[in-house]
């Protein structure tokens, strides 16, 4: 589903992502972990086609993002790390507004919005999103990224800084989406959540990939070094 080869991102002469090779298979959840500034968001933005690599190639669904990102983006649901909302709208109005921007037929959009609000336990909310808790706001942003029923979800720290219940709810919801056949690439700080849902984990440090494997294998290889 995703293939990165020799991907490097420079900001002037600063190397944010350094010669990264990475693959994400169809139907898997791959987690990228690393401390602040490791290059997680930059990697996700490049894969989502929001910024171009300085060197290297990115293929998504077999298409070269340097040439066909407009086509591929229709199949990607991207959740940025920060996702401010229009706070003077209800969740439903907000999602309807975006569905119109995306050119979705209004009947389909309303059905999809109702389904998403229900699944994310945001239905029956007549409040404006400005009055929502941080967790509820994050769930609205997730619903927005899923409006067009994308095949590939690229989620930047979906549950970072949220209360434990909402955090687990989101993690379980992502697991459920994998069950529906979605491929998910996410970044996270919390190793426990990553271990709970991810098939494989990529650890990056200073923009370089240290390892990409199952948590079991990573743990074994770390153990064997002691
Ligand atoms: P965090 O967990 O804090 O979000 P991250 O692993 O997602 O960190 P990135 O946001 O990808 O890291 O940033 C990687 C490095 O690139 C950081 O040192 C950051 O300051 C730098 N960087 C990111 N975006 C830019 C930019 N637009 N211009 C210059 N430097 C940038």
UniProtKB/TrEMBL annotation:
GO terms assigned for molecular function: ATP binding; ATP hydrolysis activity
Keyword ATP-binding: yes
Domain ABC transporter: 2-226
Keyword field contains DNA repair: no
Keywords: ATP-binding, Nucleotide-binding, Transport
Family of the protein in this entry: Belongs to the ABC transporter superfamily.
Official protein name in the record: ABC transporter ATP-binding protein
Protein's organism: Methanooceanicella nereidis
From-to range in the entire protein, with total length: 1 to 226 of 289
